[in-house]
Amino acid sequence: MIDKVLYIDPGTGSMLFSIIIGIAGVLIFAGHALIIKLKFFFLGGRAKNDAGNKIPICIFSEGKRYWNVFKPVLDEFEKRKKGIKYLTASPDDPALTADYKYVQAEFIGEGNKAISKMNLIRADIVLSTTPSLDVFQWKRSKSVSYYVHIPHMPNDITTYKMFGLDFYDAVMVSGKYQEEQIRRIESIRSIPAKEIVLTGIPYLDKMKERLDSAAKPDSANKEKTILLAPSWGNNGILKAYGASIIEKLVNTQYKIIIRPHPQSFTSEKELIDKLMKQFPESGKISWNRDPDNFNALNEADILISDFSGVLFDFSLVFNKPIIYTEPSSDWSQYDCSWDTEELWTYQILPKIGRKLTQDNFENIGALIEDCISGKNADELAKGRDLAREQTWCNIGQGAVKVADYLINKHDELVREAEKNASGTGKPDTRRKSTKRLFA
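Given the sequence above, the corresponding structure tokens read:
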């Protein structure tokens, strides 16, 4: 009887553990933030900060891996001769050495040091890809008027850890289904409605632009190529299949490019080192570690990956088929666990590619051939058209829409502040806005 009373199912236990860890993290970080504020006060930093003007529009980047997301936006501001501040947690972020005149890039420290500075920043608008604002370490600064989130993948907006977007004022999306996902979560949790901005996907626009201007390969003489691009972690394809999948691919007629996730070379170094030794570079196999994945994606005729955003980059931009592994089914700690609808990714993947399973693994060569030129090729092409329609609005105009919104929103905030200062302003209701812009 006692055992039954004390029993907690794994999902609930996992959630309770996350909550306990979160509370502990908040308490620890609160103490750390207090120390920083005291230092600012006694060293004169606070007085200096209060005396200065707010940054009009600020971008916060966790690191250089998000450079592809922000570069098109920064380029658009530079093109318009509009100033914008770019704060990064990577000392080698490409923005720091970029030839910008109106974009001010600054390294603000790594990890918690960067977060601590963001917690005290003074700005009208902060744009970021980083979720969990005001949930764990990253807190809303009292001196920031508006927080805007921009995703770094063109799929479900609810695949962030729980409460990932709850405390943002606005979220930029690329498809109406993402807006619907956010609205359902808001309704279920009874939280204020955020402003939803249909902008598009600036980094995919740039990738498409590169593809359109790139030299077209000689298809008659080009060697057919498979790109194996696994994620890292327990759900990654290399963890699931290991050396066996590379062995299967070696036995096909195709050339093979293997491009592990950059984090794999750190977090899964033993596995990667073993595989690279077992399957060294040759005329058949190449290991790709280029910072930019464009050339690998462009060269490939088909992509094999797992639950990764690269599946959509490849399908939507390069218009080629994919093979994907079974995605994780444990979403208990993610926002989508609250949603009443099936993930869009689960619905669209079977339309743009074929799932690799234990049942068809032995015949992966036939599966590849069928996707590229077999009976499924035309069906998958139609699926890619549908995916573009649903998740990539304003193709070619994403950065323009983002810049338009940020500039217009800043002007709106300035007008509100002036009205409030004169005593004629209305109460601030921006978190209650339900309008959708740039349809």
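The chain has two domains: 43-201+396-437, 206-391. Try to locate this feature in the token string yourself.
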